[in-house]
Every structure is written in structure tokens, then in C-alpha cells.
Amino acid sequence: MPDLLLELFCEEIPARMQAAAADSLKKLVTDALVERGLVYEGAKAFVTPRRLALAVHGLPAQQPDTHEERKGPRVGAPQGAIDGFLKAAGLTSLDQAKIVSDPKKGDSYVAHIHKHGRPTPEVIGEIVPAIIRSFPWPKSMRWGKASAQPGALRWVRPLQSILCTFGPETEEPEIVAFDVDGITAGDVTRGHRFLSPGPIKVRRLEDWMAKLEAANVVADRERRKDIILNDAKDLALAQGLELVEDAGLLEEICGLVEWPVVLMGAFDPAFLDVPDEVIRATIRANQKCFVLKNPATGRLANKFILVSNLIASDGGAAIIAGNERVIRARLSDAKFFWETDKKTNATVSLPDRLAKFGNVTFHEKLGSQLERIRRIAALAKTLAPLVGADPDLAEQAALYAKSDLRTEVVGEFPEVQGLMGRYYAELEGLDPAIAAAAEEHYKPQGPTDRVPTAPVSVAVALADKLDTLVGFWAIDEKPTGSKDPYALRRAALGVVRMVLENQIKLGLLPVFFKHFDLLNRPVDNTLESYSLLEFIVDRLKVQLREQGTRHDLVDAVLVSGQLVNHGTIGANGQTTAPVVSQYTNDVLLLIVKRVEALSRFLSSEDGKTLLAGTKRAANILRIEEKKDGHTYEGGIDAGLLAEPEERALSEALAGLRPQIEAALVAEDFEGAMGLMARLRAPVDAFFDKVTVNAEDAALRQNRLRLLAEIRALTRTVADFDRIEG
């Protein structure tokens, strides 16, 4: 079957846009083909710094024929209606239509339309120009004389040529005929800008790739990445060093070169006095180069890897020398910043450094950075006993953690904030826990980032994220849709991960109540606390579902249980002044443990059978309560328990309730599930032998109240009515 080859050649495609552009081209073209009945066997997109291309394999030579039956007006309808029908159906007279009879509507005209499929090149010639004109570049431009005309083509950079061929492997492919703003599709491309700039005539994919390779262009993006990575590792190994891999940098460099040539440079060993991370940030940011590590010491070596886009006649000596000059200058700056910061920190006290944050606005509605740091410190001290940290040490660590933001190094390289705080703390001889907290309090910064585990680090990291969440909730700057400018979803997920991975039993509501008070904003603290709790619980749901937990079990647990009776947190970490919450679960760790226990219970026969029984009870109650206009919550009249099965069920419920409640208080969720399993037999027997909707109104009401007791007791563990199955 024929194949399509499409290449759009332009002046430049920025590296950051290349991967998305390749995906877009593939989706736009293949979707358009399929919509027109042209189903394909496979497709692959290619992108280099100068070209965007797509190969589609196994296309039919033409669209399939279509058959359509189009109903028309009734016989005897006005001439205008008949003329419209003939035109729409492509008929010249009513003789070409058929008459069908309907017993109710009478006789009417029907057209049977047969359309021959168009040749595939004709369809491609219609699809591709429209896609080129509407291509979703994040930024695009117009150029040349035509740019002043209405509807002028916009492209990421000036589009120079279009290659588009179609045909089977055994035949010479044809050029698909179309034109976009004076650029006519052909079968010619170009090679490397400097190494082989002339025109190249190609036929199909294999020919295109082979001739480009001969013209010093590696068209396949993944292959360019492999070449860079493998050659860099080989060069490093030859010097007894290890490449410090950097996936983001590899992606970027891959988008800068069509013919990667890997070279090694060096810098003065004296610069190794600067922290490794600063050296790496300097070399990465300024020259897009990889750094190397000495495996014997674990520290960086004074060498780096650069990737050129050409084969130099001098073996790359001039290119290496140029990169070395720039890196030497940038490392000199970094060394100066580092030495300046060391002197400053040795002579300026922490209170004086903190005072500088008083003039830095965190948010116009949330005050200065200094005010925020003090809030975080107060919250870290409060949280410390709950995470096993020393309160005074946690407070001190929180006050210190952001001090590196006013240093020269972090001012130049923001990506090393936190990490530099650790270096400066170590130089000042501070407690190792403070140094660790300075580095780790931003963590986790994403789903793959590690979670702090040291108690002081956990206290400060939790305080940092909770202050952010409460603060932006207090000023009503909440995420909406896909917009989350303050990364509040990331902060909430960080709270979830820290609590779960460190097994922290933390009630969130009292923390929120107290911190909203500390912010002193004109909001309903209770309402906003519940709103924020729901937001964090939503992140918990996402986390659990990604781990394979059933969503219905999470929902069933989240609305179950007794009312939380937390108080506000006192200075010693203990709760006082009980506050009854309308939300039933604010301890994330216990939610997860309850879900896990419920999942195991429902995988047993007792669990499956009891689930069926409790759902049956809930369904009956839902119907009867809706019909009667009231619920059946309330005490059971023991004198009206006429059947032995209902007496047995009532006794089982009464006997198990205190035991189940005690197990839940003790957080023995497995035990609570085991006790719940004892309801299976009496519930089954009740539904087998007892008619709930008895003719006697008093019996009916009492039996419905018995079902309500089943519902109420099971809901202390989970809302079984929300569980599927």
C-alpha cells in the first residue's frame, strides 16, 4: 500500500517547541485522513532544528466509495422544496429518485446517492495546506512582501520549502500537488546548513533518511539523543570519569543540532572550590554543556562535555577553546559570588539577614517575606511535636531556611536555592538538622521528587506548604480549572505525600483554624478550612487512584465515620477547646489505612456478601424514605420484633456497635472489618425470612428502622452504598 512523506523545511524551529510540534503534526494529519475514510497502518513524526516531517505508512490509493440514502419531500410538495432536494442530492430530475410509501406520512421521494472515493493525493492536497495555515505554534511570524497581505501565512520561522510525496514502494512516488503562499510542494529537501547545504531530491521515507544522513542530518530525534549520550559516556570513560546525566539538557541539545559532534573541554581546577551544584548550574545555563564526575571522589571533575553541530577541520579545537573562555568567565563570576556570600554570612547575623526580607513583598495581600517566614516558623514549632521534632530547633530551622534567597549565588542561580542554604548553614557550624531543613523544605517539588524524612525537615516543609495553602485560600486565590499560578496543587500533593510516607497522624482542620486566625484576614475561617481540606483530600484521591486504589472505596471512606472532634493546637502540640467538624475525615493517614482495610475486607466472601446485603437495605430505605417523606433513623421497638430473624439481627447490631466503635477509636480498622463480617449471617437470614414492607404499619416502620440501624452501623466504617458491585 502507498506511503505519504511530508516535510516542512524552515529557517529554524526552537528546541523547546520541537517535540510538541512533531506530536501535533502527526495528530492533525492522521486525524484528518481517518475522518475522510483513509485508514493507515502506521505513522511517525520527525523533527530537527530546521525541519518538521511525517511519514504515514499503508494508506489506500483512494477513499472508499460511499452510499447514502437521503429522504426528500413528500410527493406533491411545493416546487421550491423539490428543487432544494434535487440540488442537495446531486440529482438532475425526480426520475433519478425513488418513491417510498409510508402508511402514516404518505408517499415521499428518496435519493440513493453513490459517491466514488477521491484519490488519496487529492485528499492530502486538501488537508495539508489547511493544517500548515492553522498549525498551533506557541509563537509564529510572518515574513516577506506577502506578510502585509490579509491572511498571510504564519509559521514559527520563515517556511522555505515543502516536500510531499505519495506512492507505493514498488513505483516512483508522485508529488502531491498543492501550494501554500507561493511555496509549491515538491520532492526536494536540503541537508546540513554548513556541511551539505545543497538541494537533495528524494522519493520516500527510506530514501529521505538515507540521503539526509549522507548530507550530515540525523532526522530521527531519538537517534540524535542516543548518539549524544553514548558518545559523551565514551569520552568520559576514556578519561576515567562519569557523565552526570541530565535528561532535560539532553532534550534541549538534541533540538539544537542536526549532526551531533561530541567534544570535551576543561576548566581551571581552582574553580572546584565552588559547590558542585553551582558549577553545574553555571555550565548548563550558559553553555548547554554536561559536567563530569570523578567516580573516586564523587565530586565534579574540571572537565565538561559540549555538543557541536558540525565537523570542524581542526578537530574541534577552536570550538572547545571558545566554550572554555566563556565557562572560565562564568565560573569566575560564580566563584566571586560564593566567596562574597561566605564573607557576608560570617559577619552578618541571622536577625540582620532576616530584616532584609522586610522590604521584600511575598504577596500584596499576604505581606512581606519576613512576615511569611515568621508564620512558617510559628507553624513549624507547632507541628514539631506531631512529627517527632524538637519545637525550638524546628522554629530556628524555619527562620533560617529561606535566608539564602538574599545571597549572591542564589540571586544569579535561583535553581540552587535551598541547596545553598545547606552549604551556608554548614559553613556557619549550625545544627545539621537546620542545614538539612534549609535544603529539603522545598521538597517534594513534583511527583518524582523525594520526600523529606528528617523530623525537623518535615516540620519546616509541612509548615512552608501549609502556610502557602492557607494564605492563598485566605485571599481567595484558589486554582480554577487548569490555572494554578501559585502551584497550590503541587503544594497540596506535597502535604499528602509527606503525611503518608512519613506515617504522620495529623488532623488538618485544627492547623487550618489556627493559621487562618494568624493571618487575620476577613474570611470565614471555618468555611475556608473545610474548603481547603476538601482541596487536599482531592489531591489524596488523585494520589490513591494513580496507585491503583479503587475510587469508589476512597469515596466510601471519605464520607463515613463519626464527626471529628478536634480542638485548636496549643503551643505544646496538644489540642484544646474542642471544635466539632462537619467533615468526617481530616487525618489523611487514617483515611488511607481505612481504605486499605476496606479493600481487603471486600475481597473476602464475607465482605462481598455483606456488601450486597447492606446495599439492599440502603436501596429499600432510599425508596421508602422518599415515598414517606422522612428518614427511619431512630430507636427500634424490641416489642415489635416478631420474627426470630429480626430479633437476631437487632441483637447482633446492638452487640457489635460498641465493639466496632471501640475498634475504630483504637484505629484497628482490620478489627472493625472483622467484627462487621459477623453481620453477614443475621443480615442474610433477615432478608430470607422477613418481609420488610409488612401490611401492619407498626411492623413495617420498625423493620425499616432496623434497616436504618444496618446502614448507620456500616457507615461508621464506610458508606457501603457508594461501593460498586
Quick structural overview:
With about 725 residues, the protein is α+β, with helices and mostly antiparallel strands. Helix content is about 50%, strand content about 15%. A 5-stranded antiparallel β-sheet has the order 2-3-1-7-8, covered by helices on one side.
What does this molecule look like?
The chain has 25 helices and 20 strands. By secondary structure, it is of the alpha+beta class. It has five domains: 156 residues, no CATH class; 50 residues, no CATH class; 127 residues, no CATH class; 235 residues, no CATH class; 119 residues, Isoleucyl-tRNA Synthetase, Domain 1, CATH 1.10.730. Helix 5 packs across helix 6, helix 10 packs across helix 15 and helix 22 runs parallel beside helix 25. The protein is flat and about 100 Å long. About 3% of the residues have low confidence.
Counting structural domains, the number is 5
Strand content: 5-15%
Span from first to last CA? 48 Å
Low-confidence stretches: 561-583
Radius of gyration: 36 Å
Mean pLDDT: 90
In the sheet with the most strands, the strands line up as 2-3-1-7-8
Please tell me what the overall shape is.
flat
Give the number of DSSP strands: 20
* Count of helix runs: 25
Q: Helix share of residues?
A: 40-55%
Summing up helix and strand content along with how strands pair, one would put the structural category as alpha+beta
Classify the oligomer.
single chain
Biggest β-sheet: count, sense, barrel? 5 strands, antiparallel
